[in-house]
Amino acid sequence: MIEAVGAMASALAELTSLAGAAAAPASAQPVPDTTGAEGAAAPSFTATLQSALSRVDNTISDANTTAQAFSAGDSSIPLSDVMVSLEQANLALQMASGVRDKVVAAYTSIMNMQV
User: Fold this and answer.
1) Which of 44, 67, 108, 115 has minimal CB crowding within 10 Å?
2) Which DSSP category does 40 fall into?
3) pLDDT per position in the chain (115 positions), as tens?
4) Is 52 inside any structural domain?
5) Is residue 102 included in any domain, yes or no?
């Protein structure tokens, strides 16, 4: 769950920096250097977003599996674990929805900029 928060925070930070770069005057280096200190390419926004969405999907799937096992009568799963996993899935989905809203707002803002 914490990994998803970090991924969403990094995606939001990348969007914020892109919006700031789009609003700022052109610099001497038109394309930012995306290589790390070792020379390896940093993960793209698409890869980061896909990774975060797959973690959200896995969280929801795990919560669903736990709830189904509990409702089928598996006595090894306590109700508290079911409730915690369902709440984690709910929070992950709400966070993904919030990031989606921010991405749409950033896209709309960029598309409304005059060139």
Assistant:
1) 115
2) P
3) 456 566 666 766 776 666 665 554 555 445 555 555 555 678 888 888 899 999 999 999 999 999 999 999 999 999 999 999 999 999 999 999 999 999 899 999 999 998 7
4) yes
5) yes
Beta strand segments in 16-91, E: none
* Domain presence at residue 27: no
User: pTM, whole model, 2 decimals?
Assistant: 0.60
Task: Give how many domains the chain has, as a whole number.
Answer: 1
Residue 55: inside a domain: yes
Q: Residue 72: which of 59, 82, 58 has the closest Cα?
A: 82
φ and ψ of 103, to 5 deg:
-65, -45
Rounded to the nearest 10 degrees, the angle between the axes of helix 45-71 and helix 2-23 is 150
Could you tell me the CA-to-CA distances from 41 to 8, 32, 45, 87, 105 in Å, in that order? 19, 12, 12, 36, 27
